[in-house]
Amino acid sequence: MFFSALSLFLMVADARFGITQPVRAALSTALYPVQWLALQPVRAVRGAGTYLTGLNQANSSSELAAKKLALQSLRAGQVEQLMLENDRLRKVLGLREQLAATVMAAEVLYDAADPYTRKIIIDKGSLQNVEVGSPVLDESGVLGQITRVHPLVSEVTLVIDRELAIPVLNVRTGARSVAYGDPSASGSGLELRFMGSNSDVKEGDLLTTSGVDGVYPPGLPVAKISRIERRAESAFAKIYCTPQALVTGAKHVIVVKPVSVQIPPRPEIAEAIAAPKKGSGK
After folding, report:
1. Structural domain count, the chain
2. 170 contacts 128 by C-beta, under 8 angstroms
3. What is the pTM of this model?
4. Closest Cα partner for 213 from 148, 145, 138?
């Protein structure tokens, strides 16, 4: 009875005040060397398998990488042209230039142990100034968001997790909506909810971040629409999407500071802070 009452007290206290967060951080820090040592045999086996890969497979991988690099170079040139045009429009309209995003490279250590969630663990934590809520990207698009930070590692919730939602923009139509992790049995995609049956959406439409949530920078690839189900008995369509990022095979990722951190304060707030107080004599 004593330990049952103590367990209930700790659960309520943790839910209300988060008193066990320091304990979790300490345990994570203490277990990190053990986790690192346990991963070394796996890395050794993977390295041996990569070393024994045949010459034909290596040549095909090299050709694929060259094609992808050429495509990325073309896209980079287009992005630079669009950025130049955007900068000119901002100057004409007198808008404040958008601040450059602060990014950090990280490596995926392993998948989270919980089978009911879609999460991964990366090798950067609070000691590297990682913040909760930071977007995480790979070379193909948005991978997820930081949901828990420890001193040496951080937990990333993937875009296909049912608890994660991202405001997106349809590049073809300009319509904004929200993409949720797919709660189906496979759980390997996303779903656009609350879209009318007569909405202008097509299979193959690219969805990017809209930037209206103050977390994700605008214009990042999120997913492509893969299947649409329009039902006469329902006012909403079932729209399934395939994520652009490698949600099941990402190895190296980029952690981006949330947009809200980079936005300067409102002018009236900044002026109020800078203005001397009355009667101060300064």
Report:
1. 2
2. no
3. 0.64
4. 145
